[in-house]
Amino acid sequence: MMRKLLLLLPLLFLFACNQPITELDVVAKAKEIHNNVLTIDSHMDTPMWMTREGFDIGVDNTESFRGSKVDLARMQAGGLDAAFFAVFVGQGNRDEEGNARVRARALAMFDTIHNAIGRYPELAEVAFTSTDAYRLEKEGKRAIFIGMENGYPIGNDITLVQDYYERGTRYITLCHTRNNDICDSSTDKEGAEHDGLSEFGEEVVSEMNRLGIMIDLSHASDESFYDVLAISATPVIASHSCARAICDNPRNLDDEMLKALTVNGGVIQMCILSAYVEEPAPNPQRDSAMTALREKYNNWEDLSDEELNSARKEWQELNVEFPRMLSTVEKVVDHIDHIIAITGIDHIGIGTDFDGGGGVDGCYDVSEMENITIELVKRGYTEEEIKKIWGENLMRVFREVEEYAANQI
Fold first, then answer.
1. What does 369-397 look like in DSSP terms, one character per residue?
2. CA angle 92, 97, 98 (to 5 degrees)
3. Which helix (H) or strand (E) holds 267?
């Protein structure tokens, strides 16, 4: 209510001066703010497109690769300065053969990111430190950071954490949709395996603290979340999650978790995957098609590289043929409003999950990122508050993680 009253004050002033504010005034103000602040998206699954033959990260792929949401051209159009590209691997067998297979896939994805971005030095660079984001923004380039979604490629070998750090990883999402050797997932149909963080997972958390890798708790079970907060020496992130109080999905954080995150000093990065923003309406055609696809490819487990590429292509094609029922930018900002009411302004950011299912009406791909800023301005958020939401809160955590690691040497 107070925010709405504050927003009304300039409106009343203009009305009194016979100069009513218009939609164009709001948009112009939002564009100015969006251009002024460092804008960062903490989670994109774009490398899954980058591994497809013919996909060119440097050009607009809207027509040539229908369904793709991100490339450097559209990042520039949407005013997005920096992004974390995810080295994503689905969960598979946790044995010697499975661990070797997933490591090979992860290494190939690292190579793809470095090679693809390296072809456009005038447009972007792979970034490694928090200061790189600000430097590249001043140079007019996009900063591409690397995150690892799912700690499965670590297997049970603690030395691989440093190996992935040296390849550019600056956060690791500890798990994905199923439990792994590190911790329990929020969505494993078999239920808890470790009752939170495993003993090996404790080693992983300590090693990530030592090296300066942010700990990402999106996808982790509630028990895993609290276990990590109890032992991490640094603030944590949830790179792409929403508020469970608004959308009751186990992937989202409830109010008690948000309060704990605040005490920890961490940040939740607002996801715009529609099913996490609001409960999806029934879509039987899509559900049936996706179920058939999962059955065809053994629920994505134990696939050869050729089968995996075919599965990804068919999944992307089904997303075009049977699109998700989309939520809206307004409902995304409803989550932001709620999270800020619980945590304050210093613990919220943006992590769209573009190319991994993210996208809402009004912000369907990265070229439309400015629309989030427009909605924030409509609701009375100041430039300083929007600066924190769009990147400064995440950068604060990033800096604290870097500083802790620097002091361990």
1. THHHHHHHHHTT--HHHHHIIIIIHHHHH
2. 15
3. strand 267-270
* Residues comprising the chain, all counted: 409
* Paired tokens of 328: 């809206």
3-state helix, strand, coil in the chain (%, to 5): 50, 15, 35
Residue with tokens 């940040």: 267
Amino acid sitting at position 83: A
Residue listed under structure tokens 């605040």: 262
- The rounded distance, in Å, linking the Cα atoms of 70 and 197 is 33
Angle at 49 between CA 237 and CA 212, to 5 degrees: 30
Rounded distance between C-alpha atoms, residue 176 and residue 153, angstroms? 12
pLDDT tens per residue, range 329-363: 999 999 999 999 999 999 999 999 999 999 999 99
CATH, range 23-280+325-406: 3.20.20.140
Helix locations, 91-189, DSSP H: 96-118, 130-138, 159-166
- Tokens 């591409």 correspond to 144
Q: What is the pTM of this model?
A: 0.91
Please state whether 155 falls in left (phi above 0), alpha (psi between -120 and 50) or beta: left
What tokens were used for 194?
């470790």
First CA to last CA distance, the chain: 49
Token reading at 246: 């608004």
In this structure, what are the phi and psi dihedrals at residue 128, rounded to the nearest 5 degrees? -125, -25
Give CA–CA dist 389/253, Å, rounded.
17
Calpha distance 161→397 (Å, rounded): 19
Contacts of 268 (CB under 8 A, 6+ apart): 237, 238, 241, 253, 258, 261, 339, 343, 347, 348, 349
Alpha helices, DSSP H only, in 281-388? 284-296, 305-321, 329-343, 370-378, 383-387
Q: What's the pLDDT at 41?
A: 98
Residues 6+ away with beta carbon under 8 Å from 282: none
Exposed/middle/buried for residue 199 (C-beta within 10 Å: 0-12, 13-18, 19+)? exposed
pLDDT of residue 15: 41
Cβ(302)–Cβ(351) under 8 Å?
Answer: no
Q: Buried (b) or exposed (e) across 174-186, using 16+ Cβ within 10 A? A: bbbbbbbbbbbbb
More confident residue, 297 or 236: 236
CA dist 291 to 73, 93, 113, 326, 353, Å? 34, 21, 30, 20, 21
